[in-house]
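Handoff note, outgoing to incoming analyst
You'll be picking up this chain. Sequence as last confirmed:
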Amino acid sequence: MSATTEYGNSRASFGLLIDGEDVHPSNTFPVPDPITQKTVHLAPAGLREDATLAVEAAERAFESWRDSTPLERRTIMLKAAEIMQARREELSGSMMKETGAKASWAAFNIKTAIEMVHEAAGMATQIKGEILQSNGKGTLAMNFKEPCGVVLGIAPWNAPIVSTSPVKM
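Most recent structure output, in case you need it:
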């Protein structure tokens, strides 16, 4: 990716992914290589409005995710792992440039993230509820698990891929 030396209103090398679209906010910020201090790329600086659009898009996407079958969820996650595997060199290279990570640490993070996605995919068809005793005489309570909604996750700078991989369904 190439970056210019102008910041603020220069176009970012990539956009924000909102509702399946590549959105390019008007403001950017430089992402420096922590070792050389050279700009790796310009990143989009999303505004509150962008965050609101992203949350609204995630809420709409949640409706179909909630209604999907365990097999459909597993298939989606396995496809994500397949894409990560195919792009592991690119992901590792980006992580090294953006965080200053050694190749071995970046490769470990990508490998672990792919393994975690595989594990989450395997759990998608294994989620079970349970029958519990309740406090009412002669009654039972049923406990079942279901997707609960949109959540915010903020990844640390030094392990961005492995820290954002799904670990719970």
